[in-house]
Specification:
The structure is a single chain. The longest helix has 22 residues. The protein has a six-stranded mixed beta sheet with strand order 5-4-3-2-1-12. The chain has a six-stranded mixed beta sheet with strand order 6-7-8-9-10-11, covered by helices on one side. The protein is built from twelve helices and twelve strands. It has one domain: Nitrilase/N-carbamoyl-D-aminoacid amidohydrolase (4-Layer Sandwich). The radius of gyration is 20 Å and the shape is globular. With about 350 residues, it is α/β, with parallel strands linked by helices.
Length: about 350
């Protein structure tokens, strides 16, 4: 039997490694790392937490307008000293630590990846998940799908789940929350606690009761899974204002109800109790059991026939940023419209459409 345990979500202040057009500030990465290790120690000491979750960019910060080459220069390796240092903190606290790094891989030179990691109480990286959905210059597994599957394998590599004595943990990053397939595939691979490592600004889509927050609650409810979302806190010594993040990190129960939420965008921690045995009793119940009642075979032909975003599109070269990906998206929308999946709006309606916020 697994006794209930605590999970802590950290909403940290972060110093970006780039400020405007400045060169890479490696001292900023070191400061962010030291701050994160201290947060791990405090979460274990104050809340006796067994899992500590950090947001997207908790080591690098975020600065728009930088080139792929800049982010490659700032990127880390899974066996590098930064994650080794985080591993020491996890080992000392005897907890699991999750967060995101920009990563480079020797198999794909000239590219960088947005990679979620879970470091275990042994100090080692025990899970890596590379972000599947984004519109910036980073490479996603689908961009080089055939090569990626050959290198890492299929469903388990794309939707990895870490089985621990506390229960089964899975990660998704930021924009991924808007695609129910990501959380569902993690759940079908056994995930019981979804760690949503995010970075969300002040768009209406992001705020409490906005689309992203509603999606989190639905993802938890439809998969009978806990969900812990960590968002960024204040920006320290950045180019713009310090409070570009809306904060409101949250922990959601497997019934879709919010268990705890940060009430501001300030640097803080929130904690909630995870009762894995209660979750497992819910998943074993033969009533409104969405995972057991799902018939994936009846949906598979529609998915297989859908001509949406192409696989392997950036195999020969990486996309350089939002503009490259928006051009592909425009082609996909046009094709879906020709095929009758989408219906074009009238000219007057389309002319009034506003731009959506940039996704990270």
């Amino acid at each position: 039997m697994i006794e209930p345990w605590n999970i802590t979500v950290v909403q940290p202040a972060v110093k970006p490694v780039f400020k405007g057009a400045s060169p890479l500030r490696r001292d900023a990465l070191r400061e962010n790392l030291e701050r994160a290790c201290e947060h791990v120690r405090v979460a274990a000491k104050w809340s006796r937490s067994k899992v500590v979750v950090f947001p997207e960019f908790f080591l690098h910060g975020f600065q728009p307008g930088r080139s792929n080459e800049d982010w490659i220069d700032a990127s880390l390796r899974l066996d590098g000293p930064e994650l080794a240092e985080l591993g020491k903190a996890a080992r000392a606290a005897q907890c699991y630590v999750a967060g995101m790094i920009y990563e480079v891989l020797d198999d794909w030179p000239g590219r960088f990846w947005n990679t979620a990691v879970i470091v275990g109480p042994d100090g080692e990286v025990q899970l890596t998940y590379r972000k599947l959905y984004a519109m910036t210059g980073k490479t996603r597994p689908g961009d080089v799908y055939d090569d990626y599957v050959r290198r890492f394998g299929g469903p388990q590599a794309l939707f990895p789940v870490l089985r621990t004595p506390l229960g089964n943990l899975g990660c998704l990053v930021c924009y991924d929350i808007n695609f129910p397939e990501v959380s569902r595939c993690l759940a079908l691979n056994g995930a019981e606690v979804l760690l949503h490592i995010s970075s969300e600004g002040r768009s209406s889509y992001h705020l409490p009761d906005g689309g992203w927050e509603l999606a989190r609650r639905v993802r938890a409810y439809e998969n009978h899974a806990y969900l812990a979302m960590s968002n960024c806190g204040p920006t320290i010594d950045g180019e713009g204002p310090s409070d570009v993040s809306h904060g409101h990190s949250q922990i959601v129960g497997f019934d879709g109800r919010v268990l705890n939420m940060a009430e501001s965008a300030g640097e803080t921690m929130i904690t909630a109790e995870i009762d894995i045995e209660a979750l497992r009793r819910r998943r074993a119940r033969a009533s409104l059991n969405f995972l057991a009642e799902l018939s994936p075979q009846i949906h598979a032909p529609i998915y297989a026939a859908a001509q949406a975003w192409p696989a392997n599109h950036w195999l020969q070269r990486p996309g350089t940023g939002v503009a490259d990906n928006r051009a592909v998206e425009a082609e996909v929308i046009a094709r879906m419209t020709r095929n009758g999946v989408l219906v074009a709006p009238s000219a007057s309606e389309s002319a009034g459409a506003g731009a959506l916020p940039q996704q990270t």
